[in-house]
Amino acid sequence: MERLKSIDNFKALQRRILSDVNPAIPTIVISAGTCGQASGANDLIRVSKRELLSRRLTDKIRLRITGCQGFCQMEPLVVVQPYGTFYPHVGVKEMSRIVEAVAAGQVLRDLLYVDPETGAIIEKQDDIPFFARQTRTILRGNEKVDPIRIYDYIESGGYSALMDVLARQDPPWVIEQVKASGLRGRGGAGFLTGQKWQMLADQRNGRGKFLVCNGDEGDPGAYMDRSVLEGNPHSIIEGMLIGAYGTGVTSGVIYVRNEYPLAVKHLVIALRQANELGLLGSNILGTGFSFDIQMVKGAGAFVCGEETALIRSVEGKMGEPRQRPPYPVQKGIDGKPTAINNVETWANIPAIFTQGAGEFAKIGTLQNTGTKIFSLVGKVRNTGLVEVPMGITINEIVNTIGGGPAGPARIKAVQTGGPSGGCIPAKMFDLPIDYQSLAQAGSIMGSGGMIVMDENTCMVDVARYFMNFLKDESCGKCFTCRKGTQRMWEILDDITQGKGTASELELLEELALVVKDTTMCGLGQTAANPVLSTLRYFRQEYEHHIREKRCSAFVCKDLVGAPCQSACPLGTEAWRYVAHLARGEYQEAYRVIRETNPFPSVCARVCDHKCESRCRLGTSGSRPVAIRALKRFITDHVDPSVFKAQPRVPTSPDNPRVAIVGSGPAGLTAAHYLSLDGYRVTVFEADQEPGGMLTSGIPAYRLRRDVLQREIESLLDENITLKCNTALGRDFTVDTLFKQGYKAVFLALGAHKSRRLNIEGEDLEGVYPAIHFLKEFNLQGKKLAKGHAGIIGGGNSAVDAARVALRQEGVESVTLFYRRLRHDMPALKEEVDLAIEEGIQLETLVTPVKIESRDGRLTGIQCVRNELGARDASGRRHPVPIRGTEFLRSLDTLVITIGDEPDIDYITSMGIEINERGTLRTDPDTLATSRGGVFAGGDVVTGPNTVVDAIAAGKKAAVMIGRYLRGEEMKPTEPVRVPQVYVAPCGISEEEAGGLRRAEPHTLPIELRKRSFSEVELPLLDEDAQSEAKRCLRCDLEFTEPRASEPELATAGVKTV
Amino acid sequence: MTTETISGVIGISVSGIIEKHAGDRGGLISILQEIQSRYGYLPAEALKTVAEQTGRSLVDIYGVATFYRSFSLKPRGKHLTSVCLGTACHVRGGAAVGEKFKRELGVAVGETTADREFTLETVNCLGACALGPIVVVDGHYFSNVSPVKVKEIVEKAKAGLDKVEIFRDQRIFAVEVGCPRCNHSLMDSDHPVDGYSSIRVTVSFGDEHGWLRLSCLYGSYTVESEFKIPPDAVLNFFCPHCHTELIGASSCPECQAPMVPMIVRGGGVVQICSRRGCKGHILDMGGSLPF
Predict the structure, then answer these.
(1) Which of B25, B88, B107 has its CB closest to that of A296?
(2) DSSP string covering A950-1010, please?
(3) Contacts of residue A17 in chain B, CB cutoff 8 Å?
(4) So what's the architecture of A150-362 in CATH?
(5) What is the pLDDT of residue A1051?
């Protein structure tokens, strides 16, 4: 490369480069920063070169290898310019097709980005919501250049700002421009860059001064500096050159983290090329201005991001901070005046001079100008780098650009500013992002890490994580930091292990404040932030860990044990019966299930399987073990007689009698366990058959009636008397029960009243509340639906009602009307899928406004279409009606299923209180109501809920009523324990397990099921059940595996294969 | 080899490293970094030599060597495994991945397996946060790692992550090249390498001068040569037809040695590093501008 000797030389070179470019030739851009390379971009580069050569396209298509362009989630990705066609997740085969398509001037629609929210195919990069809402001043530069080619940078307009500055020959003007731009340092503290430069320029220049680029991006979770260093190193060099010219500095240092090998490599090449071209060195372009840049590699110390520590590290010493003042701008490297700016700050300098300081200052807010890059990572759908104007709200970043939560779990908080920052709860997401607002909320901007946390993130664990980091990274100079971070970590560690106490929590808070007040550098002064901010907003999580010994995020492993077990309201050892199944020990597996659950066959069909949603296989990227299907396999294969319920107390006619009102899962479970304890129980049922909602609500195609009856009968022993057609409030009262000699009463009435829509026409002929509709059919066989049926709602009852309607004669069509999107429906996903398979139409984003009628009979329904607005407290986007989109749908039957509530208006007259939600008020620990001797549980307390929760309530009621009758202390039940029993794993390795696909149960063919009530879900085949059970990660082994004697070997994963 | 001769050998090469970094900023740290990259750790003998030759006390050097996380005073294994424990990786299950590695390899963090195959380390953030949890083995990044994938990663590393199946891998393809000066083909069909026509050039190193045949497969680094070439030697390349030296303006992105340009049939320029053993190369499509 020829060394340039004048500004004119440069301009001639620039003209030559531009004239060599044929704008008609399309360019394939492959993003190959660290993220891209980690996802396979290098393979794409090779394949595209192979294709270009073999197809003789080298002069017809340009290929550009660039750094990261921000949408890391979609890596490896390819963009075709100048069209902006965006291809995400490109594989080797797709790359060949793309080359072929570009040559033919075509777009491959099947490879384009699909908006996960709307399902729309989007061709152009700028139209994708992730990009559309950003202002990409810095990041766009990454797309335009191959970082190892200085000519690319010049072609995209690079170094032109420097030429203007050099030609003007007015260093003070340079500083004035930076001041006028209002640029604040992007490293965290937000000091005004122009002011810092002025201070440096004002220092007497006897022995030289330094400009430093701080590329020690140590905040875990922040990587925007890496992306710029890797993707556009010349923009930093140009920024530093302009700064050096303005402040009269001749020596520059770029300090880069050692953990960024690609950034180091690209920087070395860029510095060499700039030197060779004469843009660095002495007498640059004959202007008399000289500037050199040396690169220094860090060696892995977080504290070196602190400026005084960085200076010591540049000097080749241990990176311990020192007291300020003197500030580095007075005494820095080798005691000489030094100004340190962050990578992103430097990258902004050429932008200020290209667009003009005035234009730059118009972006963002008055006090916070320009854009800021954030690394949006963690539990968010679109992860990557986002560049936005200062002052935008967190909500816009996380929910609009980020696309909201990554999975079904709700977003709980964002953590900004790394270990020195704090957590901001979701309720404060309207906060604008600027230096001041974040500080007020107890966090900091920091370098721009934004880690999204959801319900599966434990805030105590997060605080413990940061404290572990800080105790390791504390340089040890200040005693309070060195010991304080250590002690805080120990307390947090105790809490996550369930060993924390309330007094320790106070000590933690006190320690945090002491460390904050008594340390010297930024690391120590902010070290308490992770603790203080989580305590400020998430104190209840700490208390939950300390008091209940539970981690509701299922993170703290000593409190969680096996997630499947602790997620189950019954504490069923799912891991254990799955392990027995894998070993072929079916009877043993059945006994494990029945031990905790009196309704194994029912739950095997209709449980909402909380175990599966917490399965670690599912939360770590794969699909959860099909635990419910395995339970079904076991209950289908084993005769229930292998389990004999053992009475714990012999029956005697003198034992106290208990009245149970309601024979649903809660009532029958309580009756069963009270009977085993020797009590004599009478169960009162208002309907003509026992089972509650199991019988009257759940249709037979989901729960076979013979299976249900067999399971109910197995529980009714000689201690239990069942009285059907006997209703509380109609046939008897609580007082009469006590008068008849019952010593305790358990109210398990369920929730049998449907909520009303409160629109006109709800009482018309042809309009039915869900419960009425289902009960009439399930108990009486009455078929109320006819013609065109409509169902309003999105829960399980709605889907049940729709599928029951479909199966009734004379029904031509069934439509479900739901106000949000399909994936927002509260019904079980598999049920919705089956309903749609069966031909039920789903009309989403609609709200009914009026029921139409003629002669007192339903004729149709008027609805309005909705659009999705802001996210509400449930994390789902709120439906907002669109004016003028009303439409009419003709209907012959309408079922309203928008929720049920207990039918208990009469109960207050019996001395039992109701709460504001219309359910019974109970003590959550003991299930006692406001009246002595009366307990309550199940839907009548919780509102409509799952079968398994009702069974759990029944079990708890039996324990508590027993204690009450024996006059014992009414203490809460113990939380679920960690796995205790060792079941040897069978011979399959984990990677084989990883290769297995989740076994889904087969379903009855559609033609057979559409008009019949035969069971839809079929049991798994033997071999499918076996292999499915073997997918289990066996989280229990960590607790139960026999340990070898040597401690070191104990962690070595001894496997008995 | 006795301890004395080992320390003798280390002393000589360490002297070279110290000399190379004499004028550098952050001198001591860059010296230690280069020693570590050569030996995989900081041998005690090397630190003594550094102390003697730089005039800084051994205590001072030990202080720096133990302050920074990336230095190791213990020999490390053949495969360096770094599990990222950055915040983004942590909230996506990085800790469980680390635990699994500990159990799989049977070592604690910072330790090396008894067979010297693997060293397990954790790192605070590798900056690939969007793809976490991240694990880097021998410079290869693995993204979205879950505990289930750990065993597979270990197996792959044992087999060699750089190993490619040159005949099955579709990323590998043949490139025909010619001399940038006389445009004569450099392909030699009589002496195939990797089963394809080889690229024949003449090279010289010191007093030696002879032929060198390179595999024409892009992605294969197989070479055959007339005389034995020591590793790390920088060679001069010549066209066997016009005898012009093949030398361009740029240097290797990996090691800074001069690059050797050749023109590609079908369009473009390929440049390979002139250093024996270095895999640095640039393939420019239609590239009239090598920079």
Answers:
(1) B25
(2) HHHHHHHHHHHHHHHHHT---PPPPPPPPP----PPPS--HHHHHHSPPPPPPB--HHHHT
(3) 289
(4) 3-Layer(aba) Sandwich (3.40)
(5) 36
